[in-house]
Each structure stands twice: as C-alpha cells, then as structure tokens.
Amino acid sequence: MHPDVAKLVEAGRIPKPVGERLSQLAPGNFCLHKSFGAGKVIDWDLPAKKVVIDFEKSPGQTMELQFAFQRTEWIPADDFRAKKIEQLEELRTLAKKDPVELVVHLLKSHGGSMTGDALEKEISSGVVAEGDFKKWGDNTKKALRESR
Questions:
Q1: Three-class secondary structure of residue 71 per DSSP
Q2: How many CB atoms lie within 10 A of CB 71?
Q3: What is the average pLDDT across 55-64?
Q4: DSSP letter assigned to residue 10
Q5: Which of 50, 126, 27, 19 is nearest to 81 (CA)?
Q6: Helix axes 130-147, 99-109, angle to 10 degrees
Q7: What pLDDT sits at residue 36?
Q8: Which 8-state DSSP code applies to residue 128?
Q9: Of 40 and 10, which is predicted with more confidence?
Q10: Which of 43, 66, 77, 80 could be a cystine partner for 109, CB 3.0 to 4.6 Å?
Q11: For the whole model, what pTM was predicted?
C-alpha cells in the first residue's frame, strides 16, 4: 500500500479496501480504461480527489478519483499494454528478434486468449507498423506453428 494511503487507513479515514484500490492509482502505476486505453498515473491530488493519467488516446487526462475507481482497472508494469507506454522500443525489438515471445507475452497479458483482430490491433498500434503487419503476421504464424 502506498505510504500516503496507509496513513489514511491507519487513521481510520478510509477503509482498507478503498486504500488498496487507491494505491493502485498511485503515481507510477498503470491502468486500463475502455475508451482511452492503457495509461500511466502521473500525479494525484488526494485532498482534491483528482488523479492525472497519461492515456494512450488522451494524455494528461484529469479524472475525479471516484470516476477513476469505477472506470479504470489496474494493470501490472510487466503487462504488454503498460510496456507499450514506457518500453515501446523494447517491444519493437522483440517483434523483430523473437515474434513468438512477443505474441506469448501479449496473450499472457490478456488472460491467455484473444481474437486475431484484437491481436492485430494491439500489435499494429505502434509495435509493428500497420503497413508491415501482414508480412510480419504471416511470418509470425509460421514461427508459432513451428515452435508450438
């Protein structure tokens, strides 16, 4: 639990489950919003009950904490979507050097399964250029069959 939030819980100002959820929205953590995509929490103002999140589709988005609680979902820093925010070059390198590992990582981040369209959307939005995706995808399918 974030130290600032732990103080509020210890003082009895907020319940522990709320503190745990609030800690997920601490600066430096990652979250997912259905419309804005993945984002990194940049700042929060607990007294004003606001949080600032840099989303893929809406950087610098200021949200009310209550709205952020309801509309976002915490994701770990090693999640594919979080890595797209901070480690995009590493993912691009992985796409070239070991596309099978990239697909495995993507699938793990999505609970083990996703549609082909969703996979294409996730990878072609920055990791592999859209124009190059078909060739990359065909080569990756072949490599996946060979690697099992």
A1: helix
A2: 15
A3: 92
A4: H
A5: 126
A6: 90
A7: 92
A8: S
A9: 40
A10: 80
A11: 0.84
pLDDT at 103: 93
Strands 30-33 and 72-75: antiparallel
Token pair of 37, please? 């995509």
Q: How far apart are CA 128 and CA 133, in angstroms?
A: 6
Tell me how far CA of residue 96 lies from CA of 5, 21, 50, 114, in angstroms.
Answer: 42, 37, 40, 21
Cα 37 to Cα 55: distance, rounded to the nearest angstrom: 6
Structure tokens at 79: 């999640």
> Tokens 């999505």 identify what position?
110
Instruction: Note the pLDDT tens digit of each residue in 4-31.
Output: 888 888 888 888 888 889 899 999 999 9
Beta-bridge mates of residue 54:
40
- Average per-residue pLDDT for the chain: 91
Residue-wise pLDDT tens digits, 88-100: 999 999 999 999 9
Q: Which residues of 45-55 are buried (b: 16+ CB within 10 A; e: fewer)?
A: eeeeeebbbbb
Distance from C-alpha of 97 to C-alpha of 113, rounded to nearest angstrom:
23
Token readout for 14 is: 């907020």
Q: How many whole angstroms separate alpha carbon 30 and alpha carbon 77?
A: 6
Q: Count other C-beta atoms under 10 Å from residue 56's C-beta.
A: 17
